[in-house]
Inverse folding.
């Protein structure tokens, strides 16, 4: 009797988690590349600022239990990818747990401000480490211990 209840509870929780995470999102085998066809249902009302002067429709994909947000400016192809989960690491080993000093040691470029959005340092792999501060996103440049807030490609 006890095993039956546990199995029933597991099935209910499993069904609930599928419903919570589906909503047009999709589990995929690899992190999509820029220019790939979008593999999930773009949100009609969900727009994300992907630079200081550009917005994109978005959807989420899951790769190895990590959520990646995809942006599309044309409604068909991936033009922006971001992640803020520390489980993801760039080929250089950078994650959102990394500090500015670690990004620089991994070959990151000098941080570039994009007013109204964020500072970002470009890594050799093409991933960019983003830092946002203040109302404009660029009030203070990142310094030694500043943590990466998200990683992106565009």
């Amino acid at each position: 009797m006890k095993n039956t209840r546990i199995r029933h509870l597991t099935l209910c929780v499993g069904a609930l988690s599928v419903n919570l995470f589906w909503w047009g999102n999709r589990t995929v085998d690899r992190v999509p590349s820029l220019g790939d066809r979008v593999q999930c249902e773009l949100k009609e009302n969900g727009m994300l600022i992907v630079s200081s002067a550009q917005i994109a429709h978005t959807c989420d994909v899951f790769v190895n239990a990590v959520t990646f947000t995809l942006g599309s400016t044309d409604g068909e192809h991936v033009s922006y990818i971001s992640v803020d989960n520390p489980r993801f690491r760039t080929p250089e080993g950078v994650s959102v747990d990394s500090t500015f000093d670690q990004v620089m040691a991994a070959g990151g470029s000098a941080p570039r401000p994009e007013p109204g959005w964020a500072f970002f340092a470009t890594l050799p792999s093409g991933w960019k480490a983003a830092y946002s501060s203040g109302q404009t996103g660029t009030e203070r440049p990142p310094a030694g211990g500043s943590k990466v807030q998200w990683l992106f490609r565009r």
Notes: The first helix runs from residue 2 to 21. Strands lie at 26-27, 47-51, 54-63, 66-72, 80-83, 112-114, 118-122, 128-131, 150-153. Residues 24-83 form one domain. Helices lie at 2-21, 100-105.
